[in-house]
Amino acid sequence: MENLIEKYNVSRETxxxxxxxxxxxxxWQKKFNLVSKAxxxxxxxxxFLDSLQLLPLVPKDAKVMYDFGSGAGFPGMVxxxxxxxxxxxxxxxxxxxxxxxxxxxxFVSEKCGLNNIKIINDRIENVKTEKADVITxxxxxxxxxxxxxxxxxxxxxxxxxxPKGKKYAEEISEAEKxxxxxxxxxxxxxxxxxxxxxxxxxSEKRR
Length: 207
Hints:
The chain is of the alpha/beta class. It is 35% helix and 21% strand. Helix 2 (12-28) packs antiparallel against helix 4 and helix 6 (143-151) packs across helix 7 (168-175).
């Protein structure tokens, strides 16, 4: 954990909040199925570091961010904890349709003293449209579906940051049948086979 101070320029206060977050995950997992049981013993690497690797990809001038299907808060809540100190003007919206998970997200937000976050208990398609500077999502659905959800929140310069597993190339090819977009790939630090897809200039293809 301590290497986060050097790697991501995280303060000791922020690191303490991340440790509180990790402890709460272990505690709440006893009551609710927040993450897979198999991932819990290695939650720091599987969830927290996996989320933190997106940090350098978030534009420093971003004002509005959405995290779709936030679950237990990965990556959106982790990024909110760190970015409250770095870019307090960035407002982060976590959308999660499952009530028990939003109860947990609200608990973490209060425990970590976050004021840069809004937790929305609803389906993505029901949320009032607001143009975003950044959209993130992890393990929610395939890329084509993610782009359907993202489109109404996007301007051309909106940056969509989506971690994907070993089938990332297949998902890109599928999405390109329905969408125009520019993208670049960033190798995942938490998976030998995974990539982070960074998308801009999203538009629908005419049929």
